[in-house]
Each structure stands twice: as C-alpha cells, then as structure tokens.
Amino acid sequence: MQLGFQAELALNYRHAYHAGNFADVLKHAVLVALIEAFKQKATPFSVLDTHAGSARYLLTSTEAEKTREFASGIKPLLSVAQMPSLLHVYLNVVRSFNPGGNLQTYPGSPLIAASLLRANDALVACELQPDEARKLKAEFQNDARVSCHQRDGYEALRALLPPKPKRGLVLIDPPFEAQFEEYNSILLGLKHAHQRWPTGTYAIWFPIKLRQDAEAFYRQVAQQPFEKVLVTELLLHPANTALRLNGCGMVIVNPPYRIEHSLGEILPALGRALEQSRYGSNEVRFLKS
Ligand SMILES: C[S@@+](CC[C@H](N)C(=O)[O-])C[C@H]1O[C@@H](n2cnc3c(N)ncnc32)[C@H](O)[C@@H]1O
For this structure, is 173 an active site residue? Predict the structure, then answer.
C-alpha cells in the first residue's frame, strides 16, 4: 500500500498511550448519548467508526503505564456517585469490562458502540494501522453485527456511505498527528460524506490548544451546507497555549432531536469531575441551528 506523508505520520500514533484519558471520556460520553438517542426509535441504525483503533486497551500495559492519562480521565469519573443517567450508561459499559471492580481494561469506541447496539443495528469499524486493525478484527470475529476493515477512514466515507441500515451516525476520531492537514481531511471527508448521505449524523472529535484554531475550524464547518451543527467543548485549562492539550471538543452535524439537552447535563458533570483548575470550562452550543 502506497501511503502519503500524512498517512505515514498518522500511523506513528498509538492510542494505547491515551486510552481512557479526558479526551476519550468526552468522546465516548457523547458517543453514548448519540447511540442512546438513536435507540429511541425501534428501527435499526448504523454506526460507522472511521478511526476505530484496536477496540480494547489494557491500562496495565507499558504504554498506558508510561503516561497514566487514564488516571485523570476515566478513573476519577468512575468514583463520582451522582451523575446524569447517560453517564451511568457509559460507566456501566466500562465496568462491564472490569468485572472485579478494579480498572484494568478500557473499551475503545467500537467496543462501546457494540456494547450498546441492538441485535439488528450495525457497526462498521475502519482502522488503517495493521497491528491495530488485526486486534480490531479479532475482537469482533464472532459478532455478526460488526464488520471491520483495514482501510483509510476518510476513503471509507466515500466508499461505505450511505450505510445499511440507512439511519445512523459516523464517528470521525483521527489522531491529529499532522495537525492542520487533519482538519482539511475532515472537511473534505465530511463534504463527500454529506453529498452521499445528507441525513446522517456526523460526530467529529478535535483537540483544543489555542482558541483561535478551534474557532477557525468552526467557521469552516459552518460554511458547509449542513443544516444543524452542534459543538461541545471540555477545557481543562484555558485555550491559550499550543504547547499542551488544553481541552477537546466534538462537532456534531445533524444532531439528533433535543440531544443538546442531554449533552447540556453531561458536559457540566464531566467538567466537575475532570477540570483541573478554576480556569477549566465546558459548553454546548449550536454553530448552526
Ligand atoms: C484517536 S485513535 C482512535 C480511538 C478510537 N476511536 C476510540 O475512541 O477508542 C485514532 C486511530 O486512527 C488510526 N488511523 C490513523 N490514520 C487513519 C486513517 N487514515 N484511517 C483510519 N484509521 C487511521 C490510528 O492508527 C489510531 O488507531
């Protein structure tokens, strides 16, 4: 396979170093809220996970132990008693992979999605990195609802949409190794995907270091012919330095009806559990409504 510079860079990334960190927590809490919203109707739906990772991460691995990012992400959240019910749904999925109550395993996005899907719903998971893709395929080899592909997730947006069933959502969760080029790939991918499947819901994770970079991304998304776009942000620190990951966000194109209300409960709860200073912040707002 001939890979471009951006793809080569992206393949350096290993999610094992970051599994269960605050960025995963925001992303997976939003993913759970979206999936539960689709489950409000009895008709089946599809999930396409364009950058799926390996699905299951051992928090005792050398990689996870090196950064211990989960210790300021999923770990403190698990000990919060009072939370919105959708966060309990998310945490119960995480607990289901840690039966003794001792946090050792963190489920990635495809495993969280598959845990919540019903018998007739479908999940398509794409992963480009060969080792991760092999683990992903092994994880779901006995689950007929899930199909896994070793392929470029952006290319999958053109090749695999609209999905069957033709109702559902796409999670776009790239590694952002090639920083600004990744935004261009996302915007182009979204454009093609929306042409093929205008009614699909698209949830895109992105890092926030500097406020102006996030706002530039929002302006570009708002220029696209999407009818409704919602954005959620979770900032642990003010977005005023490019030297660290101050926070992250999710842009949601075609958000399910009234999801802003559930996210409006989830985000402050995550903020209370995870923000590291009084300068942390969180918000849910429409970029287009
Ligand atoms: C942030 S991680 C995904 C984490 C996963 N979505 C989760 O929430 O558990 C990004 C993944 O994308 C993979 N990747 C990088 N470039 C890709 C591409 N062009 N297409 C598909 N996967 C890619 C990386 O190998 C990595 O596993």
Answer: yes
